[in-house]
Amino acid sequence: xxFLKNFKIVFIYIIFLLIFLGFVKFSNISLQNxxxxxxxxxxxxxxxxxxxxxxxxxxxxxKSKIKRTVYRIRLIFFNIFLLTFIFLIVLGYTKVTAELxxxxxxxxxxxTFHLGYMFTELILYLFEKFDFVILLGVAFSILLSSLxxxxxxxxxxxIKKRKIESLHIxxxxxxxxxxxxxxDIKEALINEEExxxxxxxxxQDMAIKEQLERARKExxxx
Length: 222
Prior knowledge:
By secondary structure, the protein is an all-alpha fold. It has helices at about 1-5, 10-25, 30-40, 45-60, 65-95, 100-110, 115-130, 130-150, 150-220. It is elongated.
């Protein structure tokens, strides 16, 4: 039962699908005609809607409720980022290629980018109600904030990865320094032993020379 609780959103989608199919059937409208009627309203965002629903269903397979919630929040803000980005693209493209007027916005939004009636109406409403500079400022603020929230997981993962790599490099440097210290100590001991060996040999040579010299003197006295 706990596993099925994760798929409540799937059941909601199924209910909406059944309602939709029932509406199409009882209204005597073919699916093809309904599809061709629906597409102009959503434009290319129809595919974004399908991808969003599919991604939302995939999140159900995650057993952690917190992670599912976080993923859905990021998905929402990613869609906001995408909508804002397209909105700015339309404004910029219209500004560069034509005159920034409602007519040109309408034409470019519907015919060039195929954004659908709903999004085009939103663009025209915002363009006519707000000052262009204020509109750009708010749009850029929404763009940056939604990008940050939607990509927070990637940023956090990148920071963690860099931190792990830094710690790994630091550990390697520490191990390298320890090994070098041991090598230096070993070389110092070897050099010390060599010095002692040389001194010992020199002392032996001196002792032998002294004995020989003493023996010569004694023989000379005899």
